[in-house]
Amino acid sequence: MNTHSSDGQLDLPWPYAWEVAHRKTSSLRLARVATVIFLAVTALIYVTRYPSFAIFMLGLATVVGLLLLKGHLVTLAARRKGVLGISRATISGRDFSIPYLGFSRAVTYTETTLSIVTFIYAATLPLYMDDIPFASTHWTGRHLVVGLIASLAAIYVVPFLVARVARWRQPLGIALAPEGVYHWSWFGRRFLPWDDITEARPVLNYGPSIKLICRDSIWTSLPGDSALCWFGFFRRYMCTIHAGYLAVDPAIAYYGILFYLKNPDHRHELATDAGVERLRRMDFPPSLAEELSDSAKA
Questions:
Q1: CA-CA 20 to 30 A from 46: which of 53, 70, 220, 253?
Q2: CA–CA distance from 167 to each of 74, 160, 161, 170 (Å)?
Q3: Tens-binned pLDDT, residue by residue, of the chain (298 aa)
């Protein structure tokens, strides 16, 4: 099940929810770029008279620009990633490797840079608020409000920075095994057995994502799961795969999970080269796409 794109590449049809988001993101591309340019130009205008305000606007333009770049990478650019990001990984204690779909390096570096820049910007924001030209004369209240916002923003970003340092050399992404799906995020690992997954839904969660609907038995931590999986909120969080972050077309991850979920007789091939080759060829039955089309119309 595949089609050819305008540049001759093989393409998989995206689920309806992803397709709508892709079109909206594409239509707003110019407006978002214009926003960043406006902030940057404003910073340049005030750089001589109000240098602190120029720093404030330049920092804001940088944060907004990185956010938009990340959004582009996980939506518009995600569709053209193809199959080159498909590789094999060996889980400890096994004598065979399984298909592995890792995070895109561009997304990883962009999000890491965004976290660092946001932390620095938020942490230093109260230091130069006095020089903003149109700010209120009540500097005490201004410092209280801005200081609180900056502190909360910095505290929010810190866990992400710590996670990125702690797991910098660790795998990030998903792997499909004969017995289930392995999911590595910035905050740890979660194993989801096929027998406990009842459905895979395409959703939007910071870009194209795959929500795995699981039986009640999945809400207990399994051997090999990260320590955070003792907490219910984290187990629920790890049931959603941010497919736009992967180094492949998100549709490959979605159709791959859906195919092996619905075809247990084929799961044995995930322990051989046949599993990787199926993903690279996008060799999925047309019935999967037809089923998605019918559910979207309903």
A1: 70
A2: 21, 10, 10, 5
A3: 554 443 434 567 888 888 887 777 766 666 777 777 877 777 777 667 777 777 777 888 888 888 888 888 888 888 888 888 999 988 876 778 899 999 999 998 998 888 888 888 887 777 766 655 555 555 555 665 666 667 767 777 777 777 777 676 778 899 999 999 999 988 888 889 999 999 999 998 888 999 999 886 555 556 667 777 777 778 888 899 999 999 999 999 999 999 999 999 999 999 999 999 999 998 888 766 655 554 444 4
Q: Give bridge partners of residue 99 from the DSSP assignment.
A: 88
Residue type, 262: K
C-beta separation of 233 from 70 below 8 A: no
Structure tokens at 225: 């799961």
CA 203 to chain centre: 12
Report yes or no: 241 and 4 within 8 Å, Cβ to Cβ: no
Coil, strand, or helix at residue 20? helix
Whole-number CA gyration radius for the chain: 22
- How far from each other are the two terminal CA atoms of the chain, in whole angstroms? 22
Q: What are the tokens at 6? A: 């305008």
Backbone phi, then psi, for 203, in 5-degree steps? Answer: -135, 170
The first and second tokens of residue 43, run together, are: 């910073």
DSSP 246-269: BSS-HHHHHHHHHHHHH-GGGGGG
Query: Dihedral of the CA atoms 187, 12, 176, 224 (nearest 10)?
Result: 10
